[in-house]
Task: structure prediction
Amino acid sequence: MVALKILLHICCGPCAIYPVKHLRDAGHEVTGLFFNPNIHPYSEYRKRRDTLYDYAAHTGLALLSCDDYPMEEFIRNVAFREGERCRYCYSARLTYAARVAREEQFGAFTSTVLYSRFQNHDLIRDMGNGIAHAEGVEFFYHDFRDGWKEGVETSKKSGMYRQQYCGCIYSEKARFLEKPPSR
Result:
């Protein structure tokens, strides 16, 4: 395998642990990118961003950050299409990562969203490949879920902030919403 300069879109510090380790162990040069306008509320966004900054400093991970927080754009694009919100979310973040990768002359881009057992992995892979073709930069596909347990254990041992929902306001609602009893 040829070593690449890879831009890794990162949703949060705990989800970065295994993908960064895996990519580095394979000889790739990894730079992280934090761009997540889906995360609500803003206090949650800051917790995840700050946890990632601490992780990056501790591990020597170069990090690009978009301090722009286009939450309104996210909401406009998912309102009345809540059933398609994940599709939009994946697309917006992967497209942003691909554009930054192309502009900053990375050899490829990928995402820690491929680490989560709770995301639509096939859709992410297919979108990543389509966006890569449209943006003219390689999408580095790897199923990082094989390191799920290792990443969780490491983040807990490190005392990292660990969120309990994917980030969007809809997933937060689902987390707290009491289900009515079955009849």
